[in-house]
Write a structure and sequence with these properties.
The chain is mainly alpha-helical. It has 7 helices and no strands. The protein has a domain of 143 residues: Ferritin, core subunit, four-helix bundle (Ferritin). Helix 4 packs antiparallel against helix 7 and helix 6 packs antiparallel against helix 7. The longest helix is centred in the C-terminal third of the chain and has 34 residues. The N and C termini lie far apart (111 Å).
């Protein structure tokens, strides 16, 4: 009896397959390719984080974001001045780069990478004196990297518009670096004074 049921089930399966032929694989493959195409397009349009434009965008966002926070956090006049200059100048440069990207059909990152977010999070959690020193040091590092990046782009960037952008902003970045290094020295001298010497600002150091 068991054998009879198995045979009947097998015959039923054969009949079902006969009435329902195998789907056309060509149409199935077409559907698969259509389904895959948005992913492929996304990959093609994903920002190349190694390009000048992408690195410049990340640097600009980092300098604006960290400086905007410092304007709210610190009462030190040297840091207030530095941060205000950073927000103003890099804000304008970021806007200009976005306009170039739109015309040149370039994709720019919309958010900071995790390593930059970690630095911002670290600044948020520090006490004021430590945060002041850390921010000044970050500005030095960021602008050294930016000067190197823009120097290379001003000489060898293949996109003429981006090359002109790099040449235009390189002198500004060099001035920012000098400013940041000066403020960083002040922050380090305050740390080294350890309260034994009167607090000094950049105005006190002017002849």
């Amino acid at each position: 009896m068991k054998t009879k049921y198995i045979l009947m089930a097998t015959l039923s399966s054969v009949a079902f397959l006969a009435c329902n032929p195998k789907p056309d694989t060509s149409s199935q493959n077409d559907t698969t390719e259509i389904a895959k195409s948005p992913v492929d397009t996304a990959v093609m349009n994903a920002p190349n984080m190694d390009s000048f434009a992408q690195k410049a965008a990340i640097g600009g966002m980092m300098e604006v974001e960290s400086s905007a926070r410092m304007i709210k956090y610190t009462e030190n006049p040297d840091l207030q001045n530095l941060a205000t200059v950073m927000v103003r100048d890099h804000g304008m440069a970021n806007k200009e780069l976005m306009e170039i990207a739109k015309k040149e059909k370039l994709n720019l990152p919309q958010t900071l990478p995790q390593e930059k977010l970690d630095i911002l999070d670290k600044l948020d959690k520090m006490q004021e004196e430590e945060r002041n020193r850390e921010y000044a040091a970050v500005m030095v590092t960021e602008h050294r990297d930016a000067v190197a990046l823009f120097t290379t782009a001003s000489e060898s960037e293949s996109n003429a518009t981006l090359k002109a952008f790099a040449k235009k902003h390189l002198p500004i970045l060099k001035a920012h670096l000098s400013h940041a290094e000066s403020v960083n020295k002040i922050m380090q001298s305050i740390k080294n004074d350890k309260g034994d010497l009167p607090l000094k600002t950049s105005q006190d150091r002017q002849p």
